[in-house]
């Protein structure tokens, strides 16, 4: 596949927060991120967090009172998604923490993906899923990818054709 910008991976997402402290607690206690050092040249309130190979940069809102509040949980809205090992474990944990969530299931050719959607303290929607159950199939003829948090295997649908694919 072409890579005109020579991209390697997702580095971080930035989230504007009404309260950096509340958001840090959420991302640490609920999602398992840990705080990391921010560059000292950043002269505004914020925090950097890291885990699972990605960073979350929390930025203090200049207008915390003007931030949107209490939007309904809508799986078709903007969100970030995290792969999990056990959707049952995640659901139990959300219940223990009294976090409101919406449960959804997607089916494709007898393969099921379970999804849990909930909000962070500022209304950013989070999805937790077992999405790697469904292979990544390019719309053009080519390789079928099976990706998970631990590996990414390419399955060649045409074994008679040798393919060299840079990783």
Give an overview of the whole structure.
- The protein contains two helices and ten strands, in the order βαββββαβββββ.
- By secondary structure, it is mostly beta strands.
- The chain has two domains: 11-62, 2,3-Dihydroxybiphenyl 1,2-Dioxygenase, domain 1 (Roll), CATH 3.10.180; 74-158, Signal recognition particle alu RNA binding heterodimer, srp9/1, CATH 3.30.720.110.
- The termini are close together.
Instruction: Kindly name the structural category.
Output: mainly beta
Alpha plus pi helix count: 2
**Domain module tally:** 2
Overall, the morphology is globular
The oligomeric status of these chains comes to single chain
CATH class of the largest domain: Alpha Beta
Portion of residues in helices? 10-25%
What's the β-strand tally?
A: 10
CATH architecture of the largest domain: 2-Layer Sandwich
Strand content: 25-35%
The largest sheet is: 4 strands, mixed
User: Looking across the biggest beta sheet, what order are the strands in?
Assistant: 1-4-3-2
The Cα radius of gyration reads 19 Å
Secondary-structure element string: EHEEEEHEEEEE
Give the N-terminus to C-terminus distance in angstroms: 11 Å
* Arithmetic mean pLDDT: 86
Q: Uncertain spans, ≥5 residues at pLDDT below 50?
A: 149-167
**CATH topological fold name of the largest domain:** Signal recognition particle alu RNA binding heterodimer, srp9/1
